[in-house]
Amino acid sequence: MDAIWIEGNRTLSGEVTVQGSKNAALPVLAATLLVPGVTRLLNCPEISDVSCMCEILRHMGARVERRGKEVTVDASELTGCRILPEHAVRMRSSVILAGALLGRCREAFFFQPGGCVIGDRPIDMHLWALGRLGVFFSGREGEIRAQALRLRGAFVRLPFPSVGVTQNAVLAAVGAEGTTRLTNCAREPEIGALCRFLRGAGADVREEGGGEIRVEGGRPLHASTFWIDADRIVAGTYLAGVLAAGGKAFLRQAPWYELKAALKAARRMGAVVRTESHGLYVERTGRLLSPGELVTGVYPAFPTDLQSPFLAAMCLAEGKSSIRERIFNGRFGVAGQLNRMGADIRIGGDRAFVPGGRRLSGCRVAAGELRGGAALTVAGLCAQGRTVVENCHFIRRGYEDIVRDLKELGADIGNETEVPPDEGRQV
Ligand code: EPZ
Predict the structure, then answer these.
(1) Of all atoms in ligand 1, which is nearest to the CA of residue 128?
(2) Which of 142, 262, 273, 424 suits 62 as a labelling partner, its CA being 20 to 30 A distant?
(3) DSSP codes joined into one string, 222-275
């Protein structure tokens, strides 16, 4: 288990390039299974969730090569359509492979991913949407077998604009016969990225606006090259870091146009935010003010993935504040660790109440999941003294190298990798 140390109470100053988007890369990697040829992805983030997805693609028979941020997938020949339980447990988003496998092979075996530390992660809507396209399900011991004698286009109105369900339905529809019309779809930027990738590979996928996507299935797909745009949540995390620590930063490539709700909150908290063609300038040199109540929601509302990093910054803000989490039913786990640093956060139902005005004290804390780990790192930037964040493998699921990036912004931060036990020592 390795950890990150942060010597807090230092303002930030510097520039950093924001990595490619995890939540765009994962569905696009799943979509490569639809292509009987070679797909080349550029600016793909070097994170462990991408490594896990590449392992899964190889397990299906695809040839996958990674050279830094370039990933090449040759899915000309697939040899299987079964997602292993160990993969499903590691990454709940692996369920979107079902749509791609059904679109290509008309069959998929996958698992009901268990609950996770940010709340329930049911897949009922995934199954319902795929069922609308002609998929039948059977199963034993937790494994779900999905089959489609004929995958046929249909009208599907999603009961909720779920990101993953939208992606799964689009992927299956691309392989279906005929027209599929999806309404009440998610509008997160990652949906647009997936549709752009599919069009570039020859699919007929049209975003009609208003949360509607139309797919003419059965088009032959071909090799293509696709650039993964910058990660809006990583950019938003570093924005929260500047809010908490104070100072200024230029976030190169930051997709500020996808962060309007977060930028609005940052300005309310006293930050100067300047959007530029090639990135985002943010500065907080005066008082850190309470944003009042932040409410998470589906895009373009304030993103649930930035809830924890902003919660960390709000601990310092003058005046009380609160966050209402409306997407996941268990995403305040980091509050307990922030309270060990002196935050005094109180949870009531779907809200976290932050008294604010706290000087956090550095101490040893433990990440429990990806964005909570990032939030503890943000808290360490502004805490008095040294903070050590353990379980940093959670952070590496979505951040290429948060230590590298925050160092470039002037943070006093490093990896505290325990010396591995002296294995094999001759006794
Ligand atoms: C995607 O997860 C993201 N993951 C999440 O980011 C993000 O928080 C979430 O969208 C919301 O924006 C990836 O893109 C890999 P949902 P997803 O389906 O697709 C409920 C991160 O930190 N639901 O939009 O799983 C679900 O329980 C991760 O990068 C059902 O009830 O999110 C949740 O309450 C965390 N039944 C809500 O919908 C279903 O069948 C939204 O989930 C599916 C979902």
Answers:
(1) 40
(2) 142
(3) --EEEEPPB-HHHHHHHHHHHHHH-EEEEEET--GGG-HHHHHHHHHTT-EEEE
